[in-house]
Every structure is written in structure tokens, then in C-alpha cells.
Automatic annotation (TrEMBL):
InterPro entries linked: UTP_pyrophosphatase-like (IPR053136), YgjP-like_metallopeptidase (IPR002725)
PANTHER family for this protein: UNCHARACTERIZED PROTEIN YGJP (PTHR30399), UTP PYROPHOSPHATASE (PTHR30399:SF1)
Domain of life: Bacteria
Pfam families linked to this entry: YgjP-like (PF01863)
Domain YgjP-like metallopeptidase: 89-154
Name of the protein in its database record: YgjP-like metallopeptidase domain-containing protein
Amino acid sequence: MQASAVEIRRSSRRRRTVSAYRDGDRTIVLLPARMSEAEEQRWVGVMLDKLAAQESKRMLGDAELSARAKVLSGQYLEGRAKPKTVRWVTNQNTRWGSCTPAEGSIRLSHRLQGMPEYVLDYVLLHELAHLLVPGHGPRFWRLLEAYPRTERAQGYLEGVVAASRLPHLPEARDE
Ligand SMILES: [Zn+2]
């Protein structure tokens, strides 16, 4: 999945090395100044794949997800949200997360894997808040007020949805 914006920076001091990193929801790719358009496209593809692979290696397991939920609950909800289970699911394609307050269970869509941490935290916190308040009324949103990146995370997720509706661009490849 490639939803974040890619920014290409060329440096005349850079001769051979190509590198890339994430900056919030942007991806910065550093390239040498002299590089053809085709080479540039190829390298951007290579670096995006590399970053994605690193990120999926960092991916949290269900146990770490539960630990993360505990931290977020403590930090933003005074520890009041206490889920019994937090796990990834692959059968959830129209929602990022869901919960069943009666069971204290939270499920997160596997499509969040590899997204920036602040986005995952937002979805997790959102579901934690639902354990306390159902629906999306003012009481619910008040619980999320303390989380500083709600709007940014929502924007990121909206961007992902919008991008998935765009026609697919042909892959960059070697001619
Ligand atoms: Zn909700």
C-alpha cells in the first residue's frame, strides 16, 4: 500500500547513494542530482518497497497491541478503558477498527499494518474510547481531545480511502 506523499530531494553532493525515510505521513527520497527520470522512478519504487518491508518487520503482534492499548488508555483515558482482547483481523475491509464493549474486545483491520504509528494509535484510542462511550456524540469526541494527532490521523485515513478509489497507475519498471 502506498498512500503517503513522496517527496524527492536531489543533492549535487550525493553521487551514488540513494536513501529514504518517513517524515510523518510523507516519504522523503534522497537522490543524487544526476539521475535520469527512468532511474529516478525505479529508485523511488525500490526505496518504497524497502521501507515497507522494514515497517512490516516492526509490526506489532497481538500481545504488543494489547500493551499499546494499555499505554494509550493510561495516557489519554485515565486507564478507564480496559480491553480484554485486542487483535488484528483480516476480515474487516470497510472499517479500520471495531469493538464489542460487552466482551471488552477490540479488533483492528490488518490494513493498518505498516501505517504510521500515530495513525494506529488513533484508531486504537478511538476503539478504546468506544468501550466507555458508544456512538460518536460530543461525549465521545471529548475523550479523544487530549490526543494531539486526531485530525492528522483522520486526514491520513481519508487519504488512504481516496487513493484506493483512484485508478491504478502503471508500475515503474525498467525498460
Ligand atoms: Zn467510532
